[in-house]
Specification:
2 copies of one chain form a homodimer.
Chain A: H1 5-17, H2 35-50, E1 54-57, E2 63-67, E3 74-79, H3 93-108, E4 117-121, H4 135-141, H5 146-150, H6 160-166, H7 178-182, E5 184-192, H8 197-200, E6 205-211, E7 214-222, E8 226-227, H9 240-257, E9 260-269, E10 275-276, E11 279-287, H10 291-311, E12 315-324, E13 327-328, H11 331-341, E14 346-349, H12 354-358, E15 364-369, H13 385-403
Parallel strand pairs in A: 3-4, 3-5, 5-15, 6-14
Antiparallel strand pairs in A: 1-2, 2-4, 6-13, 6-15, 7-11, 7-12, 8-10, 9-11
Helix pairs in contact in A: 1-3, 3-13, 9-10, 11-13
Chain lengths: 405, 405
């Protein structure tokens, strides 16, 4: 164990700090397959080579740095370097910086490393540019079909095929990679916590038990456009009213069920100050601890929406746009992680991660590092230096447990 | 009185029908100072010249067609040709088509026309492009300052100054036009009814008594952006919740007060499905029968918004963006209009009109033609052929009463 870890964390963190930083917002704009992303990927390659790790890009554009010869039973850690628009510094990069430092710790120990160890940078985790999250890990595991990935298009009309080709990836090679999956004996992703649970129990590090099932539903309320100044209330078919009632229904029902419901995106047609809307679309993001609760909640909120719509002469249609089943992380792996750490809080999360995608194919686990603000997908993410070091030490302990027999 | 008025109405109406018609929506997109508006203005000029009326564009871009020499005590009728986004066919154009046909009727009568008569097309009545309604009549009367008008900007960043200059208007000449106002002895605007009052009493035509006071208020709710999947309900500062509560408060309070409240325009930041909004802006359009009721209602809805915001850790600010006092149309003119029509229903309206702007400066009146659907600012506007002809005949009778001594 080295004793200048905090300084070395600072040094490594600083080398990444300005890449993709927006002076305007104070947040990061690190989108997949852009010039900024290229800087980040060069940084990853340099870190790998400077440590004498063998550097590889897999068939799907994910970057790998191997300690030892890649082979069966490898212990893999890492995360992603891309960000949401105006995201925080830690979401993703913390897992990769911590991984390099944890491998440094591992090599500085007395115990021989008996398995291959790898650090991975999964491409395009946030999906900020092409709209689909976890593209790198979804391609690797075959969850996302290559032809569907190639056709994804960004806001400027550039396809993912064009963007990856420009970045030098051989687009013909995309797809499920069984040999590489066969080399992953376990995947452990360290991530900044995206809530306040660790802060509440005053713990710097926790272990994930699973990812809540979640989905997105479009609630479309169709009424009748009319003049705001002349249409009697009794003659109105105003879709804004059942939309408002549904927002409140979703909140109160999710509170009662211990779930998370959010309407954060709205589209109003025609969206004129002096006109009753003809249509209001609201997107419900809903997450619950289990699939039964999620299904019951969606049905109850849908019933409320349909009923509120009918009262107002409006029609409501509800469409599921995406649905992700529950992820339960491998129990045996979680037990070994807990054993390595001497017991830390276990928590579940509502957010998707590459570890969640991989968990259906290989044993996967996640470590969370306390986020003092509890805020995520925002520059307000915040972690104490002591907690950052505690995260590296925890990850190193887990790697030692798994890779040193 | 000619007996083929219905056919002539059809002919004239047809010549206007396809201009700015959206095949997609079935509604009209006739926005000020666009190519479509230029077609409409050419149509107006052709109609004026084909009738040997003298055609003029005033200093503020409004079009005029004069029968006789413009001078003191002129009797003016007309309306506007522009539309809201996906508006109906009648709102505006009905007043101009009816005006041309009523002048035809007037000239076909035996009685000599002893006063100048004019038809006017007021520019940019709906304010759909630059956000301010009745720009042409507000400039003419000095209610809107030229420098403020010139700086108005559309959604593409084009200023009204640029748009009017491109359309050939001398922007240096904008402003209150006392000589022209001095030529308006009375202004009578015919308009499609924007509610169901005439249908309820089974009358094809009615006379306006006044326009309700009304205004627009921006309700801005500022919370905190956060991750929809990881932020506990207790930790959220979600501005969508007080917005929804305010929509419902505005509706129930306006119902109790016999007023009209509408939230038809919303802006959500950042408007992401998986993110709690940092800000929700909603615009309240509020109209009431008198100014005291309006002021009391705004205060009550503001109090509800502030209170709902505080409960949710959100701040609410309310800004009045525009406020229009009550309009009471000239009683003497209204009496003469009623006399000319042999008595028709009198009604007030919540909608603003050029006649309302002019009424503070010259005697003004409005005729309404029954709208079978009661719907306005929508392609669903609907008028019976017999009612359209009744409107022209009523307007011709009023012009005869006022212009033929």
């Amino acid at each position: 164990m080295t004793d200048d870890l905090e300084r070395r964390f600072d040094d490594l963190w600083s080398s990444l700090r300005t890449i993709g930083l927006s002076a305007e917002s104070g947040g990061y704009r690190r989108f997949a397959w852009t010039a900024v992303d290229d800087q980040l990927r060069r940084w990853f390659r340099e870190q790998a080579l400077s440590r004498d790790l063998s550097y590889k890009v897999d068939r799907n554009g994910n970057q790998w740095a191997w300690l030892g010869v890649p082979g069966e039973g490898g212990i893999v850690t890492g995360s992603h370097l891309d960000s949401v628009p105006d995201g925080g510094a830690y979401d993703g990069p913390l897992g990769i910086v911590s991984a390099f430092l944890a491998v440094d710790e591992l090599r500085a120990r007395d115990r021989p490393v008996t398995r291959p160890v790898a650090i991975v940078n999964f491409a395009d985790e946030e999906g900020a540019r092409f709209g689909v999250a976890c593209v790198g890990s979804r391609l690797l595991t075959g969850v996302l079909a290559p032809h569907a990935a190639r056709a994804l298009t960004d806001g400027q009309g550039v396809t993912l095929e064009e963007a990856m080709t420009s970045a030098g990836v051989d687009i013909a090679s995309l797809g499920r990679d069984d040999p590489l999956l066969g080399h992953i004996g376990a995947f452990v992703e360290l991530h900044i916590e995206q809530g306040r649970a660790l802060d509440d129990v005053d713990a710097p590090v926790g272990v994930a038990t699973g990812i809540w099932p979640h989905g997105r539903w479009l609630f479309a309320f169709t009424g009748e456009a009319n003049h705001a100044g002349t249409t009697r209330l009794a003659d109105r078919r105003d879709p804004m009213l059942p939309f408002a009632l549904t927002v409140l229904s979703a909140r109160s029902r999710s509170a009662m069920a211990g779930a998370l419901a959010t309407f954060g995106r709205v589209r109003v047609v025609p969206n004129a100050t002096n006109g009753i809307a003809s249509r209001v679309d609201g997107w419900l993001d809903l997450r619950a601890s289990d699939e039964g609760t999620l299904a019951t909640l969606v049905q109850a909120i849908t019933d409320d929406a349909v009923s509120a719509a009918a009262t107002n002469g409006v029609t409501a249609t509800v469409t599921c746009e995406s649905s992700t089943p529950a992820v339960v992380f491998d129990e045996e792996l979680a037990a070994r992680v807990q054993a390595a750490l001497g017991g830390v809080p276990a928590l579940s999360t509502g957010a998707g991660h590459d570890a969640g995608i991989l968990s259906a194919h290989v044993p996967a686990a996640m470590l969370f590092v306390r986020n003092r603000s509890g805020v995520s997908h925002s520059p307000a993410e915040q972690a104490d230096p002591a907690d950052l070091v505690a995260g590296v030490r925890a990850l190193a302990a887990v790697l030692a447990e798994l890779a040193c027999q």
